[in-house]
């Protein structure tokens, strides 16, 4: 027999009390909104959960991706998406498509839904108020016929500076900022930045209590073919080993590196969850069961206990 409604509410009480007035960054990946149900329904459910967090006293900031939608638009325009090390190779045309999809489509839809469900959403991207100052990412190394080669991945950026003042003003006034991961460098060149990276950097700059990364899988799996092999917790010192052992690969690498930046900067925990599962955000935050993978740093007491 499942928990009764009143039991769920009582179980959530200590979490709500602990999280009230704290800042949380919610990263919504495009994959999280492209599950077996209609994408529109999934997005509505996710946004409802985010607005609920707001109304129980959590100051929420949303960062979104849009990988599947960008891929779809590229293919319609005769371009084949290409990734290296989990990052999208971004030429001039790809940058234009990504900006159009992220800023002009997804961001607007998410803000509209927040407003519809009673929140006060505000759409932003890294260019607004110099929220994100970026630089072009260096060439990436790939192996070709056993030899390492440097490959330019185009207009892909990495964060240099986050200026969180505008975010702090908005969340203190009860708004829910929604950030698209595009920015400019010092010369004004537009850059596409991995949304997981942006989410980690924003969470670090805000001193957020939690960073939640919503994707289409239930965290880090020891075996990608076995959904029951989820690793519930990963300590910072374990990350490089998991990458070397190919447990963390592809698009999961930027997620984990973004989580690493956030936790090293003082974020209490980063949770990677399956956003296409009903109300996974609420289950992860407000119940004891846990539905994803948490990235965390051992405190001094834990370290001393192991020594």
From TrEMBL:
Domain Aspartate/glutamate/uridylate kinase: 23-274
Keyword Kinase attached: yes
EC number(s) recorded for this UniProt protein: 2.7.2.8
GO biological process, one term: L-arginine biosynthetic process via ornithine
Gene3D superfamilies referenced in this protein's UniProt entry, alphabetically: Acetylglutamate kinase-like (3.40.1160.10)
Main localization of the protein described in the UniProt heading: cytoplasm
Residues that, per the record, bind substrate: 66-67, 88, 192
Site feature Transition state stabilizer, where: 27, 255
Pathway this chain belongs to: Amino-acid biosynthesis; L-arginine biosynthesis; N(2)-acetyl-L-ornithine from L-glutamate: step 2/4
InterPro entries assigned: AceGlu_kinase-like_sf, AcgluKinase_fam, ArgB, Asp/Glu/Uridylate_kinase, Glu/AcGlu_kinase, NAGK-C
GO cellular component, one term: cytoplasm
Catalytic activity: N-acetyl-L-glutamate + ATP = N-acetyl-L-glutamyl 5-phosphate + ADP
CDD domains, sorted: AAK_NAGK-C
Keywords: Amino-acid biosynthesis, Arginine biosynthesis, ATP-binding, Cytoplasm, Kinase, Nucleotide-binding, Transferase
Keyword Nucleotide-binding attached: yes
Subcellular location: Cytoplasm
Pfam families to which the protein is assigned, alphabetical: AA_kinase (PF00696)
Gene Ontology molecular-function annotations: acetylglutamate kinase activity; ATP binding
Summary of the function given for this chain in its UniProt record: Catalyzes the ATP-dependent phosphorylation of N-acetyl-L-glutamate.
Family per record: Belongs to the acetylglutamate kinase family. ArgB subfamily.
Name of this protein: Acetylglutamate kinase
Species annotation: Methanolapillus ohkumae
Gene giving rise to this polypeptide: argB_2
């Amino acid at each position: 027999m499942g928990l009764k409604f009143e039991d769920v509410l009582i179980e959530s009480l200590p979490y709500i009390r602990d999280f009230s007035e704290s800042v949380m960054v919610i990263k919504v990946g495009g994959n999280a909104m492209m599950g077996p149900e209609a994408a529109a329904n999934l997005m509505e459910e996710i946004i409802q959960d985010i607005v609920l967090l707001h109304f129980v006293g959590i100051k929420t900031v949303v960062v979104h991706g849009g990988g599947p939608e960008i891929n779809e638009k590229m293919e319609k325009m005769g371009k084949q998406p290409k990734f290296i090390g989990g990052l999208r190779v971004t030429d001039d045309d790809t940058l234009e498509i990504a900006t159009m999809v992220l800023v002009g489509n997804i961001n607007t839809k998410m803000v509209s839904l927040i407003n519809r469900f009673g929140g006060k959403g505000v759409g932003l991207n890294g260019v607004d108020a110099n929220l994100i100052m970026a630089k072009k990412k260096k060439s990436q190394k790939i192996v070709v016929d056993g030899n390492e080669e440097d490959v330019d991945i185009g207009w892909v950026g990495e964060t240099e500076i986050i200026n969180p003042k505008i975010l702090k003003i908005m969340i203190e006034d009860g708004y829910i900022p929604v950030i698209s991961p595009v920015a400019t460098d010092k010369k004004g060149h537009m850059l596409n930045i991995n949304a997981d990276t942006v989410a980690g950097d924003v969470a670090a700059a805000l001193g957020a209590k939690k960073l939640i990364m919503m994707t289409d899988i239930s965290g880090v799996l020891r075996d990608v073919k076995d959904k029951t092999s989820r690793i519930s917790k990963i300590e910072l010192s374990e990350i490089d080993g998991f990458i070397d052992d190919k447990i963390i690969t592809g698009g999961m690498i930027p997620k984990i590196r973004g989580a690493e930046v956030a936790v090293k900067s003082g974020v209490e925990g980063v949770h990677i969850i399956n956003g296409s599962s009903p109300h996974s955000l609420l289950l992860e935050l407000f119940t004891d069961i846990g539905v994803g993978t948490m990235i965390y740093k051992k405190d001094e007491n834990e370290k001393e206990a192991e020594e």
